[in-house]
Every structure is written in C-alpha cells, then in structure tokens.
Amino acid sequence: MLDGSGDSREVITLSSPIKWEGQNRIQTLFFDIDSELNASGLVTETMDSSPIGISIADARQDDEPLIYINDGFVQLTGYPREEVLGQNCRFLQGERTRPEPVAKVRNAIENEVPVTVELRNYRKDGSMFWNRLSIQPVTNDDGDVTHFLGFQEDISAQKAYEQEQTLFETQANAVEKSLFITDVDGTIKYVNSQFEETTGFMATEAIGQTPRILNSGAQDSAFYEALWETITAGEVWEAIITNQRKTGERYTVEQKIVPITNGHGEITHFVSVEDDVTDQQFTEEVLGVMSRVLRHNVRNSVNAIQGYAEMLEDKTADPGDRAALRAIQNQAAQLEAISNRSRDIRELFRRRYEQHTMGVETIGKFVEQRRARHPDVDIDFSIDVRGGRHIQNGSLLQIAIDEALENAIVYSDQERPQIEVTVTELVDAGSIRIEIADDGPGIPQDEWNVILSGTETPLAHGSGIGLWMMYWTITALGGTLELTDNEPRGSIITYELPIGTIESDLIEQNDQNRPNK
Fold this sequence. Notes:
CATH topology of the largest domain: Heat Shock Protein 90
Strand order of the largest sheet: 4-3-7-6-5
CATH architecture of the largest domain: 2-Layer Sandwich
CATH class of the largest domain: Alpha Beta
Mean pLDDT: 82
Strand content: 25-35%
Number of strands: 20
Distance between the termini: 47 Å
CATH superfamily of the largest domain: Histidine kinase-like ATPase, C-terminal domain
C-alpha cells in the first residue's frame, strides 16, 4: 500500500470484530514489517492486544519454528510462551484433526502462498476447539520468504451453530409438513422442502417475503389481527385456514404458530407448521353432503313406500297380499336403517384424523353399553392386559365393537344369544387381541371374502354395511381382523391392534423435546 508520502509499503492487514459505542464494527490493523520483521514496539504491542491469536514462524530454519506468539495465542491455546517458542505449530493437532486441511497448509507453505483453513486443534488441557487458521508468507527485499505470519481464530461457537443449523434443516426437511420461520417482524427467514412442494414457492422466492404471499383472501383482517395479537403475546396460535399456492390454487391447512424466545424471554422468531388437509376437508365435505342428502331422500321415499303399503294393506283382506305388503314395509325399514349408517361412515372418517389415546380397559365400557341395550342377550367380558396400555385413536374401536356385537345379536337364531368378548395382550408383539365369539348361524364365507379383499365386484359383493364398518375401522387403527368358526357353532371375529404405554410415550416425547448436544 502507499503511505502518506506516496511510498510503497509492504503491510499485513488484520481484521477482527469489535464493539464500538455499543455497535458491532470491524477493526482492521495494518502492520508495516521490514525485511527482517523488526517490528516497532507499537506494532508488537498492538499484536499482543489483538483479540485473536497471532504467531510468527521462521521460514529460514528447519521445520519453521515459532519465534513469536501474542497474548491472544496464549489465551486461545493455554500454552505458555516458553513451551511454544521453538516448536512447529503442529503440536496443536490431535486425534480428530482431519488430514485434509493439514495437507492444504503444508502444501501452501511448501509453495510459499497464503492459505486459510478450518481445522480441529487442541488446547494444553486437551479440550478441542475449531481454529480458523490463516497463514501469510512474508518476504524480504529480494522477494525471498523469510517468515510466515499466522492468525488463529476460535470459531467453535460458529461451528456449533452450523452443525445445529445443519441438523435442524435435516430434521425440518424430513417433516412431512410445511414449515417456515419468520423474524419478529414477520419476514420469512427459512422454509423447508415441504413448504416448497406444498406452496410452489422456492426458498429463494419466499425468504425475505412475508406470509402474505400465501394469503388467499378467505380470512378477513380481523382474523389476522387476532393471530398477530396472540403470537406477539407469546402464545401458540392454532387454526384451520385456506391458503393460496403460487399457481393461485387454494388449499386448506391446519396451522400452528409457536413463538421462539431467547434467554431473556424476548421473542426472536415465529415457527409456523402447516399440515395440508385439503383432501381430508374435501372428503369430509362430500361425506357430509352425501350423508344429509341420502338420509333425507331415502327417508322421504321410505315414508312414501310405507304409507302406500299401509293404505293398500287396509284395503285388502287377502292373506297373501297382506303378507307381501308387510314384507314391503320391512324392506323399506331396512333401507332406512342402511341410509342412517351414512352418519356412522362420516363419523369414522372424521374421527380417524383425531389424535388421542384410549385406555384398553375402556373396551369393557363399550361392551357394557351393548349389554344394557340388549338385556335378553348374555354378553360375557374378560380382559387380561397389564395396566397403562392404550390404543392410539382408540375411541374409533367402539364402532368395530358395536358392529360385531350388533351383527351377532341381530342375526342370531337362538332364543337367548350367547356372546363372549375376550381381550388379551400379546406382550411380544406389542398388541392386543380382541375375540368376539357368538353361537349364531355364522357369517357366510363369501360375505367375508368380499370384506377381506377390500373390493366388490359384480359377482361378489357384501349385502350389509356392518362388515365394511368393522374392516374400515380396524384398518384405520392399523390392525387386522380375522373370521374363524366357533365350536360347536357360530363365528369368532378377531381384531388385533397395536398398543402403547404411557411410559413409552413419555420417553418418546422427551426424546423429541431433548435439546441436541
């Protein structure tokens, strides 16, 4: 560089972060070094006060021994000067120092060129730190390298942050939900890969924007005012909202926004997790409409059929005609009963998305309810399951239990039907087995084959909705079902379902909440 007189001077610059009047600043020092490195006392004093480690190695001696280290080097490494001077700087290397950056430094020294690497070094007490090492050759008037000036900066905190950031991004991208993070002003700072897939906005397009890019107009300003008031107060926000993709297509999400605070309790960021429930919402809407329309129309038609049948029955005395008219009325009543099952189907689809657990012992309550409704039926119940066992979304199981019991009761040909419900734990399999045995005529195998295949064909179809309800419910719970013959007569319907424990859930939850080290 040129000095004040216009003369060219060979200098080395050293930049480091400092605080100046409460603001973050970069301090740059210029060292004027002559051919023999006879630095002035001011330069030496300045180097000693530098916040990073500085070392000088003699390139003219074998193995480039250190001839100077500043106070920052001593503080960084824990080695006193008398143990360092005269040694090559490689004594800072250890078992986890990777060979690649070491080879890069050696190659730069051999070729007398500058180099900067990041590598693991070790202090005198054996503790590891990440060192950003920069080496600058120093030449004399003849252009020969006489010394190497080294700068050592502890970047352990930066490396820890980078590792945590990498781990976070890996975990965030593994989540099958859209996730984005904003600062306190609502500016997007990070999005995961699912966000890109769901919204159509790439990270480069979304970062720096606000979540308004997803605004569909379906929610009014009062909605967003309530949202902002909630999260800025440090509370979690949850809602089902309609967003808009980059293409303009609308979609529905379950949104959860969590405020993130620092060590002082100040909000620094907001994390938004959105689960695309468009298909779920559409399914529920279709099922809701179909349920209402079907029940309304069928009920009206059934009322008309039964009314006309009763009117004709009153006008005829022929026993055959009257029997036929009563059969018409019975079939109409069965048709209405089937149409009412649409509500059960809708309930099944709605409740399968709920997240809750149910104690296995609750199965006994389901059985007791049926027992109370059918006092003319003997329903025995036994359970052999350890305490604390539960079923995920287990309330759905009531549908399958009710269907199996009702099927055994309605189609029984016994004067007083006998039904046994047995619940046992399969410890090694981590599941329970529920057996519902009756003494009726049994379920036709062709009916059961249709259910197990999961499809109907023109030549094979089930006549009732009850078996399908069992199949759908147990499948939704992640279980299996089986039909076998009872002895001496009747059928045994067997459900096998996965179960969990309170303890295992707590361990899993703690693992998810435990901070990464």
